[in-house]
């Protein structure tokens, strides 16, 4: 599914680079693993090849999806009538999907709230993480500049 050198997005971890595909031998079987270097944490993770799909790992998005993300930031509606616990649960679920659009919605909503009032500690951490995940992916999209990233985030 993925090749060495591919940039991927791993939900709740951000962008990573597939450095190797290794085979590990156990007493009863051999198993292939993707060796991924995560850009945000500088950590290396190994994920069994048969778990890649269930982990929601996906290729990094492309420049075409960027238009949709910009639209989300400029025109999307935020749900304002929820308690912070309800918002936290919804936003956590969105981030776990690993979809860039869902992550962009979380960043948009929390940034809007932050302008109106101070976020609680949990939502501050969530905003920092979601923003980092989004930026880590935008930075590796071919054809995008740092100025373009900063213009809508």
Rg over CA atoms, rounded to whole Å, is 17 Å
Strand content: 15-25%
Whole-number tally of structural domains: 2
* CATH class membership of the largest domain: Mainly Alpha
Question: What is the CATH architecture descriptor of the largest domain?
Answer: Up-down Bundle
Instruction: Please trace the helix and strand order, writing H or E for each element.
Output: EEEEEHHHHH
Supply the number of helical segments. Answer: 5
Mean of all residue-level pLDDT scores: 88
Protein name: Transcription factor YdeB
GO biological process, one term: rRNA transcription
Pfam families: CarD_C (PF21095), CarD_TRCF_RID (PF02559)
Organism: Fictibacillus phosphorivorans
Give an account of the 3D structure.
It contains 5 helices and 5 strands. By secondary structure, the protein is α+β, with helices and mostly antiparallel strands. It has 2 domains: 6-59, Thrombin, subunit H (Beta Barrel), CATH 2.40.10.170; 63-151, Up-down Bundle (Methane Monooxygenase Hydroxylase, Chain G, domain 1), CATH 1.20.58. Helix 1 (63-75) packs parallel to helix 3 (100-116), helix 2 (84-97) runs antiparallel to helix 3 (100-116) and helix 3 crosses helix 4 (121-138). The radius of gyration is 17 Å and the shape is globular.
Strands, helices and their partners?
Elements: E1 7-10, E2 14-26, E3 29-38, E4 44-48, E5 58-59, H1 63-75, H2 84-97, H3 100-116, H4 121-138, H5 146-152
Antiparallel strand pairs: 1-2, 1-5, 2-3, 3-4
Label this structure with key terms:
single chain, 153 residues, alpha+beta, Thrombin, subunit H, Methane Monooxygenase Hydroxylase, Chain G, domain 1, 2 domains, 45% helix, Transcription factor YdeB, CarD-like_regulator
